[in-house]
Write a sequence for this structure.
């Protein structure tokens, strides 16, 4: 990892994540207070990294943007923002307008909240978030939008409803499988009788989001994404939260259900009955693969490269569900040292007993170097226990690595440039079957 | 004094009086052009604006294509993440040229709050040194985004100071997005660094051939070498079409500057002629090549469409005295193409089309669409400057009605309103600019995609073929229109489409 630069950043800036997040809200209309190019930059980024998903109801180049320039840098951009909001309300139809800021207005010190609050006091459904690009990456932008919702949009002082939960931690577009993953995780929770507010799927509504404080628990399916908002939620609305890894596949889904069940003091018998039923179904579907899994020798060594959510979830799925050997796990987010142990700990004690090596490395070109350290190259010996047959699960930027080590490859984590994604997801029991299909499919594609 | 003596190129608002917010018609613009008023159209602002791109994006499209180059963005983390999409062009382009798909390398200094307060120059210096050591590239393009533009980091000073310490050629490029509304300034920004850093030091003088025969051969070759300018809006397939046409006149082609190695840039200074395919791209640099190295240039027609391709060939041929050869080539190419297009005409005849893209691209493509039998009913150009007057004139001559020309740097809300009124049968738009028409149910095709053919005679045929496909089954867009809504209020479709345009002397928003 370099101290001085980020190589081929596998995310956008906080404004990019914030804009994508607002776009994904039901009826969400982002209003960018930024220089003109930010929206285009995000559109092109998603075009090349989010599994061909750009746009939505009000995304891509359709987003209202104040497009401030040199004049505003000199004289301030608040008046331009005021004009832009007023005209946006006349032209664009939205359920919730969210002003998000880029670098330029933040550096020059525009006070967007003063402007936004004037419109709010007139009854406009509008909130704001200071998301200037230098504040962090797109995952943090997602968190900032959730925080703005928690602070300024959610109804306060409403009663908690039994069995109602909010589900966070899957970041729209930054996780190209966000829709499917949210739906998969929601179905899991519905299996144990919960009512789930997942904010970003077609099943969600602004009314539901506004009433989110009625949840008795927030579930954050990520060690990093949405954590800030969950803490703020607890502080403002008194709702506790649990942090769970992204539940991909049978083992992780099982644990996810038990963890949530315990946090809500649900009837253990119910949870176990659900798990037993789902596992029975899962293995019944997996059953016919068995001959080929063994006959074709489909067990693989693996390198896993991904963001904090995927690196953990994929490693665990490969080792504990598929019985693969993920010898190297690379987390590509820039994770602070204080947060690294929590993430590494997720795969520190795998149920299968297989031990992986976790590396925090934001520069993808360095992965091969890490692999060579973990698994030294042959030194001319006749018999050598090679890192083969192998598989690379990562982003589309890992294609070159896969070529170098002669392994098949599947793009799962951002950027996903070489797959089309609509509602495919890998969470839950069924999601694990989808992932198994995709992995084995990549191995036998030329058969 | 040349513009190239300054660190930063001038913006196009000042240099060319280019405009981005204007409502006019095809006859109005052609009339202004003929009246000799040039580009003296009032520019304005909009009271409602949507997101667009800045000069950073097209600049990166060029820089990312350079082989053996590392793009180092000096800005906040997000700037340049568009490369995730441009990387497809880098991979396909390198595969088409060298048989190997290769990812680009792009880095970000990821300026944070601390850097914003205390300045980012030291961080940039360390990043340059580390990038040089790690990747050993031939060049590092140091691209400044908005933040260093505001906090005042001097990327040129850092590059100059560090150049002796690194092996890569350091190329500072100014892409501070808030500084210009005309993102075609991107081409000037990139050419500016090429002109300042890659041409001068080698120049013409240090070419030292071994013997007289070789000198003669080289002179003969150079007398027939032409620079074909490509700033990344053409893919390899379009380059090949133009190479085919130029080579059939006996010329040797040096495609420049995309996918050109920095070391080969010096070749451009010794060519007999530089040929632009688009004035929006190349005027700044070609003026410099002519002024400093005596390389004359042609910058007039864009070789899109039958008439324009033939005009473009004639202009080149005239320089070398190849007029007769050119006429024979044109006659046979046109005859063959026109006969092949007959198959598509019945479906095209009388169909109305709306075109939207960068100015020259939009106008030249509109002309092509007229030629294959479609009726142009509206054009949206990203900006306007005087170079396009010749194209407005051509279009006006063939226009069936006095249709609208919207000068707008994207702004799909104006487009949605216009499309809803005009109800065209077909829409052609820039990449990332087609969803509005698509969701309105209009058959839609992209006007720019480096994997597809657009240029020359072959381009005409391939566009016709693709449009024929679109019109033969527009079910995808029709289904979208029946089931999706654009995010505009119903009242917006009733409003005057240019309600939010405030040109000087025009009342505000009404």
């Amino acid at each position: 990892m370099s101290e001085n630069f980020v190589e081929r950043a596998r995310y956008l800036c906080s404004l990019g994540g914030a804009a994508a997040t607002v776009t994904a809200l039901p009826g969400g209309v982002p209003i960018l207070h930024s220089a003109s190019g930010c929206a285009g930059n995000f559109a092109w980024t998603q075009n090349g990294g989010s599994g061909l998903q750009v746009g939505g109801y009000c995304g891509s180049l359709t987003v209202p943007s104040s497009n401030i320039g040199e004049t505003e840098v000199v004289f301030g951009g608040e008046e331009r923002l005021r004009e832009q909001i007023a005209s946006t309300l006349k032209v664009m139809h939205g359920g919730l307008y969210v002003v998000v800021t880029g670098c330029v207005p933040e550096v020059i010190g525009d006070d967007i909240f003063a402007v936004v609050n004037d419109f709010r006091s007139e009854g406009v459904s509008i909130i704001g978030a200071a998301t200037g690009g230098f504040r962090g990456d797109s995952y943090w932008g997602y968190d900032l939008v959730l925080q703005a919702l928690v602070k300024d949009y959610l109804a306060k002082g409403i009663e908690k409803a039994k069995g109602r939960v909010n589900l966070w931690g899957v970041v729209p577009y930054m996780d190209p499988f966000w829709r499917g993953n949210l739906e998969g995780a929601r179905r899991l929770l519905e299996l144990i009788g919960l009512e789930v507010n997942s904010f970003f799927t077609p099943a969600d509504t602004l009314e539901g989001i506004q009433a989110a404080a009625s949840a008795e628990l927030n579930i954050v399916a990520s060690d990093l994404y949405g954590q800030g908002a969950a803490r703020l939620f607890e502080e403002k609305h008194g709702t506790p939260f649990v942090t769970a890894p992204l539940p991909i596949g049978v083992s992780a889904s099982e644990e996810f259900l038990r963890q949530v069940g315990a946090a809500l003091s649900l009837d253990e018998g119910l949870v176990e009955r659900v798990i037993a039923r789902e596992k029975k179904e899962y293995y019944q579907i997996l059953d016919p693969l068995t001959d080929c899994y063994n006959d074709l020798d489909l067990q693989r060594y693996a390198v896993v490269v991904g963001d904090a959510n995927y690196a953990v979830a994929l490693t665990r799925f490969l080792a504990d569900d598929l019985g693969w050997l993920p010898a190297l796990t690379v987390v590509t987010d820039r994770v602070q040292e204080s947060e690294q142990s929590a993430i590494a700990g997720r795969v520190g004690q795998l149920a299968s007993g297989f031990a992986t090596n976790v590396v925090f490395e934001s520069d993808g070109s360095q992965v091969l170097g890490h692999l060579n350290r973990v698994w030294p190259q042959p030194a001319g010996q006749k018999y050598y226990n090679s890192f083969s047959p192998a598989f690379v699960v990562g982003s589309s930027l890992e294609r070159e690595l896969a070529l170098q080590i002669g392994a098949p490859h599947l793009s799962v984590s951002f950027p996903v440039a070489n797959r089309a994604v609509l509602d495919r997801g890998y969470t839950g029991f069924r999601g694990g079957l989808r992932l198994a299909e995709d992995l084995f499919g990549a191995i036998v594609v030329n058969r | 004094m040349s513009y190239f003596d300054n660190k930063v190129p001038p913006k196009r608002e000042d240099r060319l009086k280019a405009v981005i917010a204007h409502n006019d018609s095809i006859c109005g613009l052609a009339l202004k052009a003929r009246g000799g008023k040039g580009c003296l159209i009032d520019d304005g602002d909009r009271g409602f604006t949507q997101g667009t791109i800045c000069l950073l994006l097209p600049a990166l499209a060029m820089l990312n294509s350079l082989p053996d180059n590392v793009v180092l963005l000096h800005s906040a983390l997000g700037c340049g993440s568009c490369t995730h999409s441009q990387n497809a062009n880098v991979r396909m382009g390198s595969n088409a040229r060298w048989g190997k798909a290769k990812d680009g390398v792009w880095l970000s200094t990821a300026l944070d709050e601390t850097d914003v307060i205390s300045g980012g120059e030291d961080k940039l210096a360390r990043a340059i040194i580390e990038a040089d050591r790690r990747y050993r590239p031939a060049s590092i393009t140091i691209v400044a985004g908005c933040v260093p533009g505001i906090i005042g980091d001097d990327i040129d000073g850092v590059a100059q100071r560090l150049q002796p310490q690194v092996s890569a050629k350091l190329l500072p490029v100014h892409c501070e997005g808030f500084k210009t509304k005309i993102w075609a300034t991107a081409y000037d920004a990139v050419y500016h660094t090429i002109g300042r850093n890659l041409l001068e030091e080698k120049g013409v003088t240090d070419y030292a051939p071994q013997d007289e025969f070789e000198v003669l051969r080289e002179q003969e070759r150079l007398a027939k070498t032409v620079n074909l300018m490509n700033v990344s809006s053409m893919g390899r397939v379009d380059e090949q079409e133009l190479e085919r046409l130029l080579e059939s006149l006996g010329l040797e082609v040096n495609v420049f500057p995309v996918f050109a190695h920095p070391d080969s840039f010096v070749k451009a200074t010794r060519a007999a002629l530089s040929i632009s395919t688009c004035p929006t791209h190349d005027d700044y640099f070609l003026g410099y090549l002519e002024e400093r190295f005596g390389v004359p240039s042609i910058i007039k027609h864009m070789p899109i469409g039958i008439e324009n391709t033939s005009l473009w060939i004639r202009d080149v041929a005239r320089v070398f005295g190849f007029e007769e050869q050119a006429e024979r080539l044109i006659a046979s190419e046109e005859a063959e193409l026109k006969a092949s297009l007959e198959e598509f005409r019945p479906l095209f005849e009388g169909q109305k089309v709306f075109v939207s893209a960068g100015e020259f691209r939009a106008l030249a493509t509109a002309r092509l669409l007229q030629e294959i039998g479609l009726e142009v009913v509206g054009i949206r150009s990203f900006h306007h400057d005087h170079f396009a007057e010749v194209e407005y004139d051509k279009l006006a001559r063939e226009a069936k009605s006095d249709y609208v020309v919207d000068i707008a740097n994207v702004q799909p809300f104006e487009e949605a309103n216009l499309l809803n009124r005009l109800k065209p049968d077909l829409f052609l738009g820039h990449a990332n600019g087609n969803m509005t028409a698509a969701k309105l149910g209009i058959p839609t095709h992209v006007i720019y995609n480096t994997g597809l053919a657009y240029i020359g005679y072959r381009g005409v045929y391939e566009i016709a073929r693709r449009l024929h496909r679109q019109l033969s089954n527009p079910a995808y867009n029709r289904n979208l229109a029946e089931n999706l809504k654009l995010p505009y209020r119903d009242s917006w479709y009733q409003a005057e489409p240019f309600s939010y345009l405030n040109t000087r002397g025009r009342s505000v928003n009404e």
Notes: The domain at 54-180 of chain B is CATH 3.40.50.1980 (Rossmann fold). Chain B touches chain A through 74 residues (CB under 8 Å).
